[in-house]
Amino acid sequence: MAELVVADDEAWRDCLGVSPMAEDISGDEYVRELRIPGPDAELVQVTWDVTDDSVRIRHHRDGRIVADLFREMATLLTVARTGLGAEVILEYGSDGWLGRARVRVRPTVLIDDQVLRS
After folding, report:
1. Strand pairing of 110-117 and 97-106?
2. Distance, CA of 15 to CA of 39 (rounded, Å)
3. Residue 72: count of CB within 10 angstroms of its CB
4. SS3 of residue 9 by DSSP
5. Tens-digit pLDDT profile for residues 69-102
6. Sheet harboring 64-71: ordered strands across?
7. What is the pLDDT of residue 106?
8. Is residue 67 pLDDT above 70, yes or no?
């Protein structure tokens, strides 16, 4: 089974201007968190655990969670520039199926999550 590969801190900082940090709530040193502020009181929160190969992406608006995407069997978590914006890319899957979530965080938040049988 593949392990979760995560972009390094410099890649996050270069694309989004923020760096991952230890996630406070769990108290687990292996759980990392990234908070990406957006326009109009929006926030995208990404947490991941490389020991469990899991990723959670939450979209907050005005202090409320409007989307909560949790995926286990994650294999890749990275960031990429897209024209004037940036997106978080999450790949996950196992034998017989693959998933990919693309979360545009700039200029506006847009979540596209697809799962396909292989």
Report:
1. antiparallel
2. 16
3. 13
4. helix
5. 999 999 999 999 988 889 999 999 999 999 999 9
6. 21-22, 31-37, 42-49, 54-61, 64-71
7. 86
8. yes
Are 35 and 42 within 8 A, CB to CB?
A: no
Q: Which helix (H) or strand (E) holds 11?
A: helix 9-16
For the record, the structure tokens of 17 come out as: 């201007």
Tokens (6 digits) for 105: 């965080």
pTM for the whole thing? 0.91
- β-pair partners for 80: 87
Q: Which residue has the higher pLDDT, 60 or 41?
A: 60
Sorted by where each begins, the domain ranges of the chain are 5-117
CB atoms within 10 A of CB 11: 13
Query: Distance (Å, rounded) from C-alpha 13 to C-alpha 15?
Result: 6
Distance CA 107, CA 36 (A): 12
pLDDT digits (tens, 9 = 90+) for 14-33: 999 999 998 776 666 779 99
Neighbouring C-alpha atoms within 13 Å toward the C-beta of 2: 15
